[in-house]
Structure prediction request, 897 residues.
Amino acid sequence: MNLTLKIWRQENPQAKGRFEKYDVKDISSDASFLEMLDILNEQLIHEGGDPVAFDHDCREGICGACSLYINGRPHGPDTGITVCQMHMRNFRDGSTITIEPWRAKAFPVIKDLMVDRFAFDKIIQAGGYISVNAGSAPDANVIPIPKENAETAMDAAACIGCGACVAACKNASAMLFVSARVSQFAVLPQGKIEAAKRAKSMVAAMDEMGFGNCTNTYACEAECPKNISVSHIARMNREFFIAKVTDSAKK
Amino acid sequence: MIKLDSKVPEGPIADKWNNYKSSQDLVNPANKRKLDIIIVGTGLAGAAAAASLGEMGFKVKIFGIHDSPRRAHSIAAQGGINAAKNYPNDGDSIYRLFYDTVKGGDYRAREGNVYRLAEVSNNIIDQCVARGVPFARDYGGLLANRSFGGALVSRTFYARGQTGQQLLLGAYGALMKEISRGSVEMYPRREMLDLVMIDGRARGIITRHLNTGEIERHSAHAVVMATGGYGNVFFLSTYAMNSNGSSAWQCYKKGAAFANPCFTQIHPTCIPVHGDYQSKLTLMSESLRNDGRIWVPKKKEDAQKIQKGELRPTEIPEEDRDYYLERRYPAFGNLVPRDVASRAAKERCDAGYGVGSTGLAVYLDFEEAIQRLGKNTIEARYGNLFQMYEKIVDDNPYETPMMIYPAVHYTMGGTWVDYELQTTIPGLFSAGEANFSDHGANRLGASALMQGLSDGYFVLPYTIQNYLADQINVPRFKTDLPEFEKSEKEVRERINTLLNIKGNKTVDTFHKELGKIMWEYVGMERNAEGLKKAIEEIKTIREDFWKDVKIPGEPFNVNPELEKALRVSDYLEMGELMALDALERKESCGGHFREEYQTDEGEALRNDEDFTFVSVWEFKGKDKKPELHKEPLSFEFIEVKQRSYK
Prediction:
């Protein structure tokens, strides 16, 4: 395949970015999208240019590092997978592909296609865990958990923290990411104890980090590489609402 | 000259760890606050250790190369984690898990360490459940188990095909909790480039900030390496692109001896190689061997037709299929350990029975399982793996068998540690895949996660405390000491030298050249002649690298090519040590298979009389031959036998 690539280039966080055009030739349709970028980078190094910086690591769809906005869609045209799992057979020979970084105030560009997602860690730090210390756990089978709840928790826990939901959202909202963590713990007995505090503090952290709010367009669910459902947002809203109501009742 | 003392406590095997804990030194809470610990690596071992030590009250600084600790490659482990819970009531016990692990490792691991691993395995499951890890459950609400290679019991706990992800997120949650409490400080996007020693003890590290290129100094009372394995020496592997062995290598050069470098695990079920541009290999979880049956055509002409695309696997009748693992190993069948399964696949392909366009693949077939259990059950068990396969290969594994081939997956070798996980450098500890301690010459499936969490949650928190107990009067170290000055200068010089070569060949070109040699001569089968050749060829590539590598860009910006170059320059030395170790170990054991040493049936032939030891290599200086030390292994609680899975 021969392709034209329109890629966002930006020297550093302060620099003003721009699109640059590159041509790549004889790409196998069996190559992955990132392998195609590897080939481009080898070409750029040989020509004395600056290779394109992009985030990637496991290249099997689980680390959540890769984060490309391709032809207007996070992780590209295929659904239910990350960029690193997408292969060139999804594109037509001779086409032009536009590649951008995630665009959100809370995800500043580091260089070219790499963005800083520290804001996600900050949100988790606000309460995305169960506060037990090592060594103090009872036997794992002491509390039976209905299979259905365990499955729901796992559906939510499948989130890879890539940020596609934020990139897809017109408000750059992180609701899907936050709700996945809140929801995972809300349906487990171990997580129930801190559920109210967790919902409140994680939502507060999300606002503080500069993410927008949810206006129910569901673009996040459509673009999530792990098919995380917006029903988790509904559960988080419920948890949040109950927590707030309980607070005011106490007052 | 290094001294090797394994420090395994006295007493019956089941009492050793308790004896250690009862007699070890402790640090009081007020003093813990005055002691700093550096942890390098944020995977299972690193994150778990940082969280646990933080919970205890130590001041912890944790460093990782990613933007978030959650991206460490533990996240990619699929199949599960072993524990001796015996919930299925099928005869498991701590002793049996210990026994299986030592046997699976072909009797090249230290008994004391392995027993402790089996002993704490049950606490790990308790801990993970308490932290909200959504393990698979049965309809009654209790935890489910499945079988893995090398075991006759079902002791593997799992969270769909994403067990590593869920366990890491559990440890990551605990780490985030401690960061928010202020006991742990996180340094993301930092790559360790040197170990700093003061008066013979590990006291700090030099790092490069991967976003800005800034070189930084960090000091502590103790340093933990939890930086994973070095399998990317082979270029193509199931490791993440940025996984590397450089931190272990820097420590090796400062005096931390390296153990069993040649023990590499080649995983039997990976998606086969398809092109020159390929950047990595994708693992298909070993759990698939629970229900999948491995076969190749019985007739060579069928294999040839398949290779040419003239015949489809579904057209080959049952009687013309060779289920070679079931044929050769009736007791364990498709669930033989990884080294055995990998070699058997290579044997069939080398004999001309391989499938796929390259002839370097075998089938993993679910037809029988789908008929027996229904498509829905198979989808519930392996759905995400099947989807991953289909996206990569463009073929539907529900209808045609998967094609798989072995690939580099794990390194059993690593930094030498004693029972306390302390290296030959006082104050330097090594945990998880980065150390050599528990898996001998071959690791069983679902044991890597167990070891990472065991080291991090339950071993290091005790043993580091024992080390730090006499350090309570040592004040915090300043980073303007001459030792830091010197280390930083050396790091800067190394970076400048690399950037100033301005040659003609890219880093990847060298890495691929090295990888080809490693795979051919230091891969699944090795022989003396090939290993000698590998050593010579690696030297040539290394010389060429330092003359002709081309690294674009600046030192003080994001520069992935520079990052790769620093790592590849280490691989070019590591590869040589792996070949040397393989050459010196004149026997076959586990993942180390020397063609010269095999049974009549083609199984690995150990030489217990001469090689029941850990090879421990000591760095003697640049371009000097490292010195081989031997830690003898004695088996008091297990009878050493020829491994048999028949």
About this structure: Chain A has nine helices and seven strands.
